[in-house]
Design brief:
The protein is built from eight helices and no strands. The protein is globular. About 75% of the residues lie in helices and about 0% in strands. Helix 1 runs antiparallel to helix 4, helix 4 packs antiparallel against helix 5 and helix 5 packs antiparallel against helix 6. The chain is mostly helical.
Length: about 210
């Protein structure tokens, strides 16, 4: 009985991630339709999602945990160039977190990324001396708050929630400062400085 049960559990453990990835793909397509993205916009979204997963894979040792430097989160500033990137970075975050850290991180992380991406898009015209500092700062704060809350709730068994919350937020926030406020802002500046790159980012024909 025990062997049969463990065999079923192994099969279930293999099937569930596949079903979740398929569900994520379905949600991604629905989101693209709701945002009324044309084929070019959907392509930009899909490429962004793939880049996010690839970056998390390449830098996986520093992309997860209480203190993390998620290089992929520099892409969270791309929504300043249009709505397609909101769907892209959210889907990418969901898939990367699901593959490396499980469903809890996938839900909390992608929720934080979605909120931050929408706010970055709303603040897309805001610049401080030519730099997208406000969208980046909002992204840092949202991720620090939501992911810090997640870490304190689910990944700090040795400490009470109250004792774990602030250190978790500070740990995530420190990494996000580098990813978004340094790397992300630099990325946006480079794209905006090049007419060709800007047209590509905004989905225009070059």
């Amino acid at each position: 009985m025990q062997t049969a049960k463990s065999g079923k559990e192994k099969k279930l453990n293999k099937i569930v991630p596949v079903l979740l990835v398929l569900a994520a793909a379905g949600i991604f397509l629905i989101a693209c339709r709701l945002l009324r993205l044309e084929n070019r916009g959907m392509t930009r979204s899909a490429v962004t999602a793939a880049l996010y997963v690839v970056r998390c894979t390449l830098f996986s040792p520093i992309s997860f945990g209480a203190v993390q430097l998620r290089v992929a989160d520099a892409l969270a500033l791309l929504p300043v160039f249009g709505l397609p990137y909101v769907a892209g970075v959210t889907a990418g975050c969901f898939l990367a977190n699901l593959l490396f850290n499980g469903i809890i991180d996938a839900v909390f992380g992608s929720a934080a990324t979605l909120l931050a991406a929408v706010l970055a898009w709303r603040l897309r015209r805001s610049r401080v001396r030519g730099l997208a500092l406000l969208p980046a700062l909002v992204t840092v704060l949202v991720n620090a708050a939501v992911v810090g809350l997640e870490l304190a709730l689910f990944y700090s068994p040795d400490r009470t929630f109250a004792a774990a919350l602030l250190p978790a937020m500070l740990g995530v926030g420190a990494g996000e400062l580098v990813s978004c406020l340094v790397l992300g802002v630099a990325m946006v500046r480079v794209i905006e400085a090049s007419p060709t790159l800007r047209r590509l980012a905004e989905g225009e024909k070059v």
